[in-house]
């Protein structure tokens, strides 16, 4: 039991050090657009954007809200859907909103379109 308490304390200390390092990293001019409680994935996406390895896709909802989603240059429709899901989940967690959404229901009910064309084939590349 005492070993578990030490292990939890060590984990908490490591987590605190990691968060402090991320906070210092976010002060970099290239990463200053990121939120204070940034994830490693968000940092990786921002760096990929800076190096031209990724692109920002702006997803516009029917209510007019626009969500900037970062995907790799050769991403498929399925990868865009997964990135959109991660974006929404992070936003919900930060704002304290609904924690669980049925993505199966969302993709059955709604769809992504580009220039009037429905993006129905998940394997199709966004560049196409």
TrEMBL record:
Residue ranges constituting the SNRNP25 ubiquitin-like domain according to the UniProt record: 55-127
One GO cellular component, as annotated: U12-type spliceosomal complex
SUPFAM superfamilies reported for this sequence: Ubiquitin-like
Protein's UniProt name: Small nuclear ribonucleoprotein U11/U12 subunit 25
InterPro entries: SNRNP25, SNRNP25_ubiquitin, Ubiquitin-like_domsf
Species per Swiss-Prot/TrEMBL record: Accipiter nisus (Eurasian sparrowhawk)
Pfam families assigned to the protein according to its UniProt record, in alphabetical order: Ubiquitin_4
Swiss-Prot/TrEMBL GO biological process terms: mRNA splicing, via spliceosome
Gene3D superfamilies hit by this protein: Phosphatidylinositol 3-kinase Catalytic Subunit, Chain A, domain 1
């Amino acid at each position: 039991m005492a070993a578990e308490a030490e292990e939890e304390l060590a984990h908490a200390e490591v987590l605190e050090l990691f968060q402090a390092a991320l906070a210092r990293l976010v002060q970099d001019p290239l990463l200053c657009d990121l939120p204070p409680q940034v994830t490693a994935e968000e940092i990786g996406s921002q760096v990929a954007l800076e190096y031209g390895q990724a692109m920002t896709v702006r997803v516009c909802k029917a209510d007019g809200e626009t969500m900037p989603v970062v995907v790799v240059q050769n991403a498929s429709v399925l990868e865009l859907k997964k990135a959109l899901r991660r974006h929404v989940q992070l936003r919900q967690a930060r704002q304290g909103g609904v924690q669980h959404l049925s993505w199966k229901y969302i993709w059955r009910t709604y769809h992504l379109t580009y220039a009037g064309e429905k993006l129905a084939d998940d394997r199709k590349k966004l560049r196409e």
